[in-house]
Amino acid sequence: MDLANAYAALVADLPAVFSMGVVGLAGIVMVAIDAFRNNHPIIPWLGVGALAVSGAWELTQLGAPDATAFLDTIRTGGSASFVNLIILLSGLATILLLRPYLNRMDRDYGEVYALVMYSTVGMLMLGAANDMVSVFLGLETMSVSLYVLTGLVREDEGAVESALKYFLLGAFSTGFFLYGIALMYGATGTLTLPAMAQAELATTSSQLLFWGGVALFLVGFFFKVSAVPFHMWTPDVYQGAPTPLTGFMSTSSKAAAFAALILVLYHAVPGGEASTVIAVVAAITMVVGNVMALGQTNVKRLLAYSSVAHGGYVLVGLAAGTSAGYSGALFYLLVYAVMNIGAFGVMSMLEWDQKQGREQTLSSLAGIGEQRPVLGAAMSVFMFSLIGFPPLGGFMGKYAVFAPAVDAGLTGLVILGVLMSAVSSYYYLRVVYVFWMQSAEDVDVKGFTEAALPQATPAALGTLVVCAVALLVLGVFFGGVLETTSAFFDAASMASAP
């Protein structure tokens, strides 16, 4: 790596990390304000402003060609901006949903919002990485912040248990991840993703070294995206963490991890030779996630297994190993972020057990559609979209990942995905049934009264309505978004990218 012109190029490269800079600076300012004016009400709105400005910047960069900055360690424009936009909008929605939630819990701490901002910085780096060191720094910055946020309610045994499980298993997976990077570097002599694919593996030992590294690297990433058999942390962590933060973890962190995995597969692993392994993992993940969700009575735990299953759907697109599969996966990540932020957002406004919804059952929300019609209608939209019901975004998201897999000859995998989507309709429609068709008088839940349900704030309610409308827009006007994501992987433009 030539460092002779590094300082001269530093200023020119600063726009490439504009979003990371704004979000990170906002986090530092939040900590400074909180030090002098503890839990000042302006802190969350500072986060909203920083995320909105950064999102507007990334929107202007969608049409820019893919390029690199900071000595080829960070990608800019195109696909990087698209992923950054998903992460930033998810963070923005999370803060709008989180503020009233923390107020109800009497834990509206300024440092919570700062940690959300720092984890967002890690996600932005992870989703735009062009170098293994950048991947690692982004992954750990994101993960350490999320470990702390998961255990926010330190007096609650469920939250502490969730945080400890997440931390221990996350640290364990990081060991696989780092050792995989070391082996890949040992085989290729470089940490830059495109250079890895161009390296000559002249001997059998170097080939074994490289593919052994890829295998260990994938283990680390499969943990982060909750792929089976590395999903065991997901239901417990999602159930014990504060609900809006659970939505943040299930969307932003998954979008960033999948985006980094796409970059590695597209740029560093030649010829899509990991497709067979990914296809097997995708099949197992779809089956286990959907089957385990069938028997869940807690909605957060149900959505956790649902998250596992949807990770399998995204892996179907990656298993295709084609540009269409990768672009379809990016589109699916956008749709999935909107669906899950909305679903967890609704549950955060229907939480009455004072234990982050860990103990309340789905049946306790019988008839909630009549009591809270806006929340009931929004939840119905999210559930139908998660099934893949047309004309909502979830239907087009599944089409975007299944169609390239069929073209790649993975018809059996796609048939399994369609069957699992049919299976998922049982537990998603069960939520809709309880909300609208089951009477509250039919269910006797100890400790539950309608008065125990929190009142939704206009900002939080507006966020859910926007998410529901966005799913309809993405389902009807999907063509423009798919054309955008397809352009990111155009063979000619990618060949000319640094």
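(ticket continues) Second input and output from the same batch:
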Amino acid sequence: MQGMIPEDVAKEMEGDPRLSALLADLQEALRSAEDMDSLERVRVAFLGRKGKITSLLQGIRELPAEERRRLGRLGNALKGHLEEELGRRRERLLVEELEESLHRERIDITLPGRHVNFGTRHLLSRIIEEIEDIFVGMGYRVVEGPEVELDYYNFEALNTPDWHPSKSLQDTFYVEVPGGDYEDVLLRTHTSPVQVRVMESTPPPLYVIAPGKAYRHDVPDATHSPMFHQVEGLAVDEGISLGDLKGTLEVFARKMFGEDRRVRFRPHFFPFTEPSAEVDVSCNICGGGGCRVCKGTGWLEILGAGMVDPNVFSYVGYDAEKYSGFAFGMGVERIALLKYGVPDIRFFFDNDLRLLRQY
């Protein structure tokens, strides 16, 4: 308690037996207080509702005025200085406890950390998002449709005749509907039916892409799967030409595979486009010189495309004399195979964590 109470106040207290005894008790209590619990006991013993200093201040009411003023002044001085001393000791004890805790619980930063495995987006999901971003950047919007589809939207409205081999049970999964004709309901074989549905409800101009799953009766191998992903695109407006299609797909190919890639069109046939073409991109392995990946041709097939057949417009009520358009369709798995060199399409569906970690 040395230095806690001014010297003149301490001397005055020593001259009063009651205050002298109270001061001695307080000094002894503070000397034995070495932790937070003992400090709290000192506070309660002297400053609590029934504490010694509290009782002293409450007992001066019956004393003469002069004595009451003297004891009140000394008692309040003792109370104030005790509160300051308790506060200082609490701060010191807290610092000591913190230092001890830091020393006891210190972390050895030389130890190796724990490895945390984080999930990632599947490669196919990332490819679809990348394709969407490219075409949205060119003004297209993303549309979706049902995977269980009607024959009308999947074949008939896309200018596919009944005798076309794609409509056979060997190529298409048909769905048996109770009480109905099972040949009218099927798992869509491409996402082109979405384009017909959108054209039915939306007048031109129209610029859309339709990503989603498709189903065909294929035996799984390195390049085929009975369930796969496609992105179909459609543009309908006045004055659209084959040159617009070529320019659009060149932009897509260079953004997807690299600015140095070249694109070529080869004549082909699709029921819903005329003229039609297969679209190739120059091989990224050999740069077009020829290698095992491109089978010595220097080119890799990436998608099919063409100008929309006017017969398709007749199904949706578009004026084929006023509007023209182009359509294209690509397999997402094929894009991923070509871009990242994945050797087998089945890897995408095997749930092998090594594929997820690699890409």
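Agent notes: The mean pLDDT is 85. The first helix runs from residue 7 to 14. Closing as not reproducible unless the customer responds.
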